[in-house]
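This part of the workshop introduces the protein records we will be handling. A learned vocabulary of local backbone shapes supplies the integers on the structure line. Getting from the letters to the tokens is the skill we practise here. As an example, a complete record with its sequence and its structure tokens follows.
=====
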Amino acid sequence: MVGLDVEHCICYYPTKKWGYLSLALLCILGPTAVGKTELALRIATRIGGEIVSVDSRQVYRYMDIGTAKPTPEQLRLVPHHMIDCITPDEPFSAADYQRGADEAIHQIRQRGNVPMLVGGSGLYFRSIVDGLFDGPQADTAFRQRLRQEAEELGIQHLYNRLRAIDSKAAENIHHNDLMRIIRALEVYERSGERISDLQQQWERAEVRYKFIAFGLTRPRDELYQRIEARVDRMMAEGLLDEVRSLSKYSRDLPSMNCLGYKELLGYLDGQYDLDEAVRLIKRNTRRFAKRQLTWFRKDKRINWIDLSTCPSPEDVVVTSLESV
């Protein structure tokens, strides 16, 4: 683990339970299936924390198994926020997330507890601690036109266009991530600027909250084994039935393009058999975890903990907090 950047840790909101703890935010970040939830729960019960989910999928109601939402027991153990905010057919942006998370953080502070950002969405994390870059507002007609193009010509057609316009952005966006591809093309169309250039505003921005962030990691093979085991467990818990109950929603919705849901919808639509759908979920989740790590590794403010070599990671975190 790298040394703590105290400049980004100190703030002046002492808690009732930990009078000496003056953190504004404690962040537990990392790729899917690495073990964030389990560790965050143990830490929260020790320091009087409340968890603010940093997950772009857990905001949707009715999508429980496939998004690995906390169980009812876990929700009773530690208060959670930014979960089950909207239905799958409602629009939800990073700005919407920022407003909701800001309010949750304010309320947690008012109760004298420690706000904990926990999750794997790099964009949502940055929206809270650094703010959002100054980009154009959404253009509904433009987005609909590009969705139609994707349906007629394929997502790769749009991805190739993005790669020609903004190769740096294309490197950080998966070639099947239609929502982010469209947003990057929309920014260029409406502003004449590349989204990758606008995102550099983050590097010059003042932090919105003082914070301390820990990133969790494991060796690649171990992480991939955990991903595959999680997918198998989700299937055993009824993920297919959950997806079947959501099949009334349009396949074009961002919610229906979430990992696990889009692959099983493909099976329900007769595109391939169930074994192939499960294989695709596992493959796409591995790729997603790799992109998450790439995003977080770029942020030098994150202190990394390898869970495969750390026998008591919660002690590492709590001891670090005590030393601040």
Observations:
- Residues 1-22 have pLDDT under 50 and may be disordered.
- The domain at 6-133+200-323 is CATH 3.40.50.300 (Rossmann fold).
- The first strand starts at residue 25 and ends at 29.
- The beta strands are 25-29, 49-54, 80-81, 114-119, 211-217, 302-306.
